[in-house]
Design goal:
The protein is mostly helical and 101 residues long. It has one domain: Non-ribosomal Peptide Synthetase Peptidyl Carrier Protein, Chain A. The protein is built from four helices and no strands. The longest helix has 16 residues. It is globular, with a radius of gyration of 12 Å.
């Protein structure tokens, strides 16, 4: 696994627990996973950031979502991802899946 500004293993060090996930932790997880997949730094990313402006293609974004699904032990149907434009919208979907599980 490659390190992007020390972000590898940050996910594990944050102690994510599916039932106690806070919004800030979800954002940090997204940034860490996106940094790992894209091999670039997304520390400045915020919830208002537009996903298309990140410079990450749709396949890489699906990989990021897949990594989050595995870590959080949730499944997000592809149709729930249609129309998502911002990081906040993606985190909303993830939060709903966590609450439903």
């Amino acid at each position: 696994m490659r390190s992007v500004n020390g972000n590898v293993a940050r996910t594990a060090s944050l102690g994510y627990a599916r039932g106690t996930m806070e919004r800030t932790q979800l954002l940090e997880m997204f940034k860490a996973k996106a940094s790992e997949v894209a091999e670039r730094d997304f520390d400045g990313l915020t919830e208002t950031s537009v996903i298309a402006d990140m410079g990450v293609d749709s396949l890489a974004m699906l990989e990021v979502v897949g990594e989050m699904e595995r870590e959080l032990e949730v499944q997000i149907p592809d149709d729930n991802l249609v129309g998502i434009e911002t990081v906040a919208q993606l985190l909303d979907v993830v939060e709903k899946r966590i609450q439903a599980s």
